[in-house]
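Re: [help] complex structure
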Amino acid sequence: MKYVDEFRDGEVAAKLAQTIGAEVRTDQTYHLMEFCGGHTHAISRHGLIDLLPANVEMIHGPGCPVCVLPTARLESAIHLALEEGVILCSYGDMMRVPTSNGLSLLKARAQGADVRMIYSTLDAIKVAEDNPDCHVVLFAIGFETTTPPTAVAIQLAKERGLKNFSVFCNHVLTPAAIQGILDGADGKTPLDGVLGPSHVSTIIGSKAYEYFAKSHALPVVIAGFEPLDVMQSILMLIRQVNAGHHVVENQYTRAVTQNGNQKAQGLVADVFELRSSFEWRGLGVVPDSALSIRQAYDAFDAEKRFTLPPFKGADHKACACAEIIRGQKKPLDCSLFGKACTPDNPLGACMVSSEGTCAAHWTYGRFRDTEVAR
Amino acid sequence: MKKLDLKNGTVDLTHGGGGRAMNQLIHKVFTTAFSNTYLNQGNDQATFKAPLGRMVISTDSFVISPLFFPGGNIGSLAVHGTVNDVAMSGAKPLYLSAGFIIEEGFPLADLTHIVDSMAEAAREAGVFIVTGDTKVVERGKGDGIFITTTGVGSVPDGLDLSGEKIQPGNAVLVSGTIGDHGVAIMSKREGLSFETAIHSDSASLNHMIAEMVEAVPSIRCMRDPTRGGLAATLNELAQQSGLGISLNESAIPLHAEVAGACELLGLDPLNVANEGKLIAICPAKDAEKLLAVMQANELGVDAAIIGEAVVDERYFVSMKTTMGGTRLVDWLSGEQLPRIC
Amino acid sequence: MCLALPAKVTDIAEDRQTGIAEVGGVGKTVSFALLDDVDIGDYVLIHVGYALTLIDPEEAAKTLALFDEIAEVSS
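Output below.
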């Protein structure tokens, strides 16, 4: 696979690891956060922790839209499918996530709801066109990478005059989430650098992070998705920390530019506007962190077309996700990890998706724990 | 009795009713295709001489959707699957029974196609389908067709393959590329369609197994990694043997297209089903010989040594990645669904 | 968080809004609605059935060269 295999060369990885090992200062610990759940997954899946020196600590950030979606929003989606009788179109990631009373989209389907898995928002448009007598709702989740496809679908629906299509919008914003993490840090956990998300950045551009680099004196490196990209980006962060720099560097130059994809940004700006506040699972309420559909597209806004009862999702009292997402605790610090809370029965944000910190640790890394949960 | 319209006709409730219509269906479709001395006798059961050695029996039900996929269909799968389950014990598969639950309205052309595929698969494997059953359920009460096959075979005394026999240091081999079947199925599933030349690896492995067991009688155990893929089967073996298994990612055979499809969908090939592959575990000193025997068979050309059994009281299956790090290879959690994140 | 993959464009529909892109020989229908211009043979990053951006082959080569440089220094 071109542009994939060359970036997964094991020999080069070993040499990068050597270089990192040679350049870290032995008298300090480097706390680096990889914001994006995709990076968490890539690091875990390739076992990159083994290539890093012990004093480089990777903190797994909240960049996992499935993880941070409050269960109340999921309950609303299930309500639309079960009670309002819509055809609910959802990406595969959301299908098995449980609500606090154990329901999920898959279980709702087993109960007779018409829940369909889609790969692209255009699949949902097709479902609407093929089923003119049913209302179709697209359960839209995701950060800035996944938002433009929803915008395209809404514009297309308007263009084609679809009367039976709407979107339940749960799109969230990366810079706001980073701000939320930094604001909540309170000096509790040192953060020395951030590995910026690969694909969100293709849309929003590297300039979106310049604010954090300046205001928080934080080095940021936009990292590509492949393991060698991640290794090189870690090296770049370590070099900045050692030199006392705090700028935004772009390692993923083959896909990310300073201004990003302006056509996509324009489409999003046309269809969506900022929500004043949105509750994130694990992070709490974060201001200006999510999008809602503009008035001009009201006809395609599921929240306007349907009255959604006020659901209150509540996480388990002992759930430590709020601290884990901020890097203040590790999965093993949570009393539920591996016992009541596993990927088969996820109780909190960090376990519901394979990219969540706890899920990744359970699936790929728990053999390293001395007191292990089988 | 009106002639059965095998081209355009459909199955109806009378075909399961026990009367003339059912008799006609059985003769025109099943007995014609499966024809053998046992079945042709027309009894409700098949009587055969007990084979020498010990008998092995295995059963499996097939509810796959879609019914037809690149490289096979539910019928050929139903034969290969059960032949393999019997053969994994080292046994020679001999006879199969086949039970069909057919939904009212099912096209006879599809039924004939499926049954003909079963007959061909049975011929290739050298087994006879000697008895069967047919039921028809109302429209909406069945997913087109369900098939259950039970297989009987014989294994000579002295050949005792079992997961419990695995010892630390034993080599772990796989007979070829992984993930082909699961990807072929997914490529046909609605909502996930993508274009690929990958077809299912569904095949009967008993001939290759016979060659393997003859050349390397020290084989400890064999198992086919079907649902849940290589990961599930290796974890089963680890638990059964009370040992850990250590794998080498770069040694695991994988078609570039399967890798591409898995990347596209966010799936791990280790969790994807196989229907024509097996895992074999043998003492390290015999591994190269076993590998050569497998590679000499057309169903094992891509066979490889992928790891070894190790002492581990937590029975973990771990893997050295192509990057040089280590990660766990765990059971799959729940049903495997494509992801966007 | 966003699974996106480099894929080679092998077909473009007449309206230039959709086409086929291949990863490791596996083809998938993609939308080009987020791009201004794309040609057959280009590599694009695809996510949920959309091409997000073109992959710049020169920059990719530069990144690979950088890896080699680092690798050489550390040997």
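The first helix of chain C runs from residue 57 to 74.
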